[in-house]
Amino acid sequence: MKLGLIGNPIKHSLSPWIHTRLLNQANIAGSYELYEMEPGSFNEQISYLRKEGLDGFNVTVPFKQKIMTALDDIDEQARLLGAVNTVKNLDGKWIGYNTDGKGFLHSLRAKYPELSDKNIKALIIGAGGAAKGIYHTLKNETTGHIDIANRTSERAKEMMEAGAERENVRILTLQEAESRIADYDLIIQTTTVGMKPNVDQQIISLRNISEGTIVSDIVYQPLMTSFLKEAQAKGARIHQGHEMLLYQAVYAFEIWTGISVEESRLLKELEEQLKGA
Predict the structure, then answer these.
(1) Which label site among 21, 29, 104, 120 has the fewest CB atoms less than 10 Å from its CB?
(2) 2, 51, 64, 88: which one is catalytic?
(3) Residue 118: active-site member
(4) Where does the Shikimate dehydrogenase substrate binding N-terminal domain lie (predicted)?
(5) Residues ≥6 apart with Cβ < 8 Å to 133
(6) What is the pLDDT of residues 146-172, one digit of tens each?
């Protein structure tokens, strides 16, 4: 099986490490290669990729939207989100999917099963591609209140309005979200703030957070972001970014192969890998 990843930059991606282990666990012979593309020559490079005969590939920034123009068909959920992170080659046709939201929620509930209670009050910080997937999954899988906080309200409004309407969704400024931080059961940080090398940056303060709140940060380098450190110090429970990274990869692998794999051992291995990064 021939798999890969397109994006830029991707030289330090952990996807080859993850998918090589998934292939081994499923007893499938195959490879997973990186295809770093330049945005200015995307169409030419996609034509080259077609000739490579990949069975499937992942898509990361900045091509999650752009890849949609090169696909033969798109899964309904990915079309709704306006972003694709997984492509399957089905008899020569490229089909696009998005596993971000599903992978996030699965990883969250695997760690905190009580979140299967659908009436939760959640805050999503950010309105980028990953935030879209997470928002739409929460919107479909929960019935509680969702707030979206972003630096610019326009992107948050666009994210909120995509797809079916729902009551109990509100757009806030970052300052408003910070002032109401004690109100939430679940807080999800989806921006790149706090990612290496800017590990001391933090998008909002959590000083008034309620004890026991679940705080998630999708940044996984470092494993413990400044955001998560403050949350933990204030008595919150944390959910780290590498957990979503693995679960969305597992769902992509299932799309390509039809095989479900056991994640728990791989999650521990991935954590050790990141600690040594």
Answers:
(1) 29
(2) 64
(3) no
(4) 5-87
(5) 81, 83, 85, 98, 99, 100, 101, 102, 104
(6) 999 999 988 888 888 765 556 788 999
